[in-house]
Amino acid sequence: MKNGYPNMMIIIFATAGIFVSFLVLAKPMRKITQKFGALTIPDLLEIRYNSKAVRGIAAIAILGGAIGYQMAQYKALGNMLQTVLGVDYQLALIIGVAILTFYVVAGGMVSAIWTDFLQTLIMIVGSLIVFIGGMNLVGGFSQLNSDLSNINPELVQAYHTTGPIGIFAFISYFFIYVIGHQGQPHVVSKFYMIKKLSLLKWACIIAASTYAITGLLSFTGLYARVLVERGDMAVPPSPDMVAPMFIEAYFPSVVAGLIFAAVMAAIMSTSEAFLLIASQSVVRDIYQQIIKKGEELSQKKELALSRWVTFGIVAFTFLISLNPPDLVGWLGNASWGIFAASLVPVLSIGIIWKRATRIAAIWSSSLGFIFSVGLYILSVNDIYTPALDTGAVAFMISAVSFVVISLVTKPETNLIFDENTDKKLA
């Protein structure tokens, strides 16, 4: 709301990131899972580098990023239900988390695909209603831009020259959301499920289009800024309450209910995806493959363990979310940074560059995780804040270390690049 169009660059860059992820990762990841049976990102990384250490570091990074992102989703969930139900934040959070936990634990990856599909349809409809209805309220696109420019000309720029989202933030968004999209495990792990490579083109177009449409919900912040300046809308008590207050104030009850359902669908869909990948990281990648050294678990035992781990993650993130940081968006941004720094170099560069080595992967992923978390903690505590976003800095450290260490360490053979296992995976 305060920063104008620069905040929306995240949506634009993330949409572009979908195309980059499909271009770089979709085909090789699908071929690798066909040949070697990889089920998770750490599975693929262990196959690529022949290293349990790389698997373990990636699993920890995925778990850490998922927990941070889950906190962001819970806070958004609590804020939304607080408005819809007219109850306080804590009770709203309890209700929302209880519903989410029930259908995630009762279902699984297959159910997640179907619920994602249905939730996406609701999100598309709701997003279009908000976008079109809000435009009519403020007088159209030209009037919106004119009003924002009158408030502050920098609100209609791609980045600020004096405001909080300057050129360094703009560059950071590029690294985290365009390049870093390849490290988002809840997205790229779905490349394993593509039935036919010929469908990749359409899958990419559909994924990018639906994301861009649902991103239209972010216009609520711009609408609210204009309406507040006009005196037509009360000042929201926090940035996280902008969308709920706008929807409640300017749409009929039935329509508002559909829009709230769309927003809830977005939150639930993302939360479900992160709970599943976090559970996978603990059960399969850490417990089964590292602690139990590849011992196969019975389907019943694996399901039971996954459910208990999911309950544990829900409980942990729920307790923290009862008193979360002020702004949802920056929690999600930090988690994207963790994924980008810890996973993108070892995954995206590693599966197309045969010169990449095990030692380089261990150092790169470790440094990416340590710096992304460490710099974020220093920043939020006002101890040290780099010019670039903490995740972008960590990503560059991870990428440079990966390439340099690979070049100075001894080359290694790998099954992925073996002539007999389809050398041209990319």
Largest sheet: number of strands, sense, barrel closure: none
Total number of strands:
0
* Name of the CATH class: Mainly Alpha
Uncertain segments:
422-426
Specify the number of helices.
16
Order of SSEs, N→C? Answer: HHHHHHHHHHHHHHHH
CA-CA gap between termini: 41 Å
CATH topology: Sodium/glucose cotransporter
Number of domains: 1
Outline: globular
Helix content: over 70%
CATH H-tier superfamily: Sodium/glucose cotransporter
User: By helix and strand content, what is the structural category?
Assistant: mainly alpha
> Radius of gyration in whole Å, from Cα?
22 Å
Describe this structure in a few short sentences:
With 426 residues, the chain is mainly alpha-helical. It has helices at 5-36, 41-49, 52-85, 89-106, 109-138, 141-151, 167-179, 185-188, 200-214, 219-230, 242-250, 253-291, 299-321, 328-349, 358-380, 390-408. It has a single domain (5-421), classed as Sodium/glucose cotransporter.
What does this structure look like?
The protein is mainly alpha-helical. The chain has one domain: Sodium/glucose cotransporter (Up-down Bundle). 73% of the residues lie in helices and 0% in strands. The protein is built from 16 helices and no strands. Helix 2 (41-49) runs antiparallel to helix 3, helix 3 (52-85) packs across helix 13 (299-321) and helix 15 packs antiparallel against helix 16. The longest helix is centred in the middle third of the chain and has 39 residues, at 253-291. The two termini are 41 Å apart. Residues 422-426 have low confidence and may be disordered.
